Predict the structure.
Amino acid sequence: MTPRQPPPPDPEDPKIAELEAKLKRAYRKIRKLRREVAELKGEAIAPRTTGKNRRSHRRNSELSWLGTFLFLIVLMAGGFWVAFRFVKPYILSSQPTVKTPVISPKPTVSPPPQPAAASELTYNVKTPPQLTYSKELQAIADGLVNLAISQKLPTDKLSIYLIDINRQSFAEYRSQIPRFPASVTKLFWMVAVYAQVEANLLPADTIDYDDTCKTDLCQLVKHSDNEAASHILDRLTRTTSTPQNENFEDWLERRYFINRFFRSAGYHNIDVSQKNFPIADLKMEEPERWDLKMRGNPEQPIRNQISAEQAGRLMYEIATQRAVSETASDRMLDLLGRDLNPQVWRRDENNPIAGFFGEGLVDSGVIFASKVGWTSESRQEVAYVRSPDGEIAYILVVFGDSPAYSNNWTIFPRISRFVFDRVKVR
């Protein structure tokens, strides 16, 4: 924060005006005294004076020196007062400000780092992919920024991450800034479910689903259902939103497992420990009890945060069969798959195609997998796009952390088409 400079003294301050008037009267007095001194000096060079005249001269001289002394006292007092008016703001600003302490979580945007225990399950891909920066891809990313500008959308609230899978290259725009991810967190919870099933920490039927999509996992990914997501996060962390006879710190330690799972693999400062609301079966429109308490200071609450780069990395690891295992990655990619046929997705009023990347690719014939997020204040999507022959294969992530993106239902389809048309001619 830039320090605020102290304001100059107000020239119309009545105290200053009063002092200036006193100074003017003092100046007039001293001029009068000086005239009297001059007259007395004129008498002093006359012929030798009598004793009476000498005594009068001494008296007048003493009066002259007394007037001069008084004038200097007044002048110095006025000078000190004016100087104090100038210096006072600096003196006050240099004093420490005492504020009422505010209890807030540390840090205020994410829970404190907690290293995973030696026996605790962690994500299997420990380091980010080794990708090469591409100026050619960067030109595409820059074009997306210009597209947002042309729509009068705030670019400081925009993050972009683009990976060309075949060329192992990337480009980005503000991709490392942690942003609120909305339902993109469900992509991460899905990966953790498959990891726990393969580690025999969850029953095998946790990942079962069919065309009816009745299971929690299918509802979590296909329909982004918050109730199913609540059940999944409870199972992953051995917690519940309605705890009974538990210690909050123990409960919080278990809930933070999901953060440690990814942070131990280089997903630095990621936070995916908060549930999405509303949750129908809990009759909760917003966080309550310990779900609310874990957010800390309500003026600056801890919220989920993911960077566009982290979302792109996880989708890349799924698409390249590295997440958990080849089999798990293939099954997750199948869950994330979207049918771009308008006759199919338009049947669902809450489909993840309209207003998102898929709508811009309905006639492209691509294989498309994605996870979207949307709130009244933001719009997000991470997607894997591949042509049937595999010549085109890329990951695109866009986070628009502003109501301007939330309310714009054409920008994401236009972004998607812009990228596809330029990647296919590379």
